[in-house]
Every structure is written in structure tokens, then in C-alpha cells.
Amino acid sequence: MSAKPSPERPLSPFMIGPYYRPQLTSMLSILHRITGVINTVGAFLLSGWLLSIASGPAAYDAFMGHASAWYGLFFLFGWTWTVAYHLCNGVRHLYWDTGRGFDLDTVYKTGYAVIAGSVVLTVLVWIVVLI
Question: Which domains, and CATH codes, for the chain?
Fold first, then answer.
């Protein structure tokens, strides 16, 4: 006779649906990984920009035509946020490396601070760029 799992208890915390509600901590962790990948793509595009400068005015003008278009600016704004988020969350991880900040209240406060800080940094960078 095999035991059947109880419908009240999920088999895994990773089950989606009524069993598992995503939490701020898990979402920020996943977002940190995603922003790391996006930052890598952005670094390749930054290298492309530098190569266009080295290749002469025609290549630079072609690159800047895309970078200054609406989709280029949209990507640059988003990339600025991913860099700011990754930086803020990295500082949070450095704080954790000291062995502090693991109580649930502090984890949530620093999580919200990372989100707010990344938005504020992004806006400040773009204010400086546009002035």
C-alpha cells in the first residue's frame, strides 16, 4: 500500500499555482540573475560602440543611428536600470557577507531599498545624461 500525497501539502516549494506564492526574496534573487545576463549583453553592445568609434565616422554614425532611435534609447534606459539594480543588490550581498542582515525584517527592508535605489539611480543617471 503506497501513501498518497495529501492535497493540502505540495510536493515541492517550486510548484506554481495555489501552492506557492512568490516572495520578494526569491523574485529579487531571480531578477539578480536575469540582470546579470542582460548586463553581459549590454557589455557586448558597449564593445560594439567602441569598435564603431575605432572603425571611423561611417560606422559610428550607423551605430548611433540605432542607439539614438526610440528602441535604442529604450534599451539604454532599461540597461541603465539593470546595471543600477545589479549594483545595489551586489552591495546588499556584500552586507550579507559580513554575516549581518539575515533576519526577515532586514531582508525585506534591504530588498525594498534595492528596488527604490535602483530606480532613483537610473533616474539620476538619465537626468545627468539629458542635461
Answer: 24-130 (1.20.1300.10)
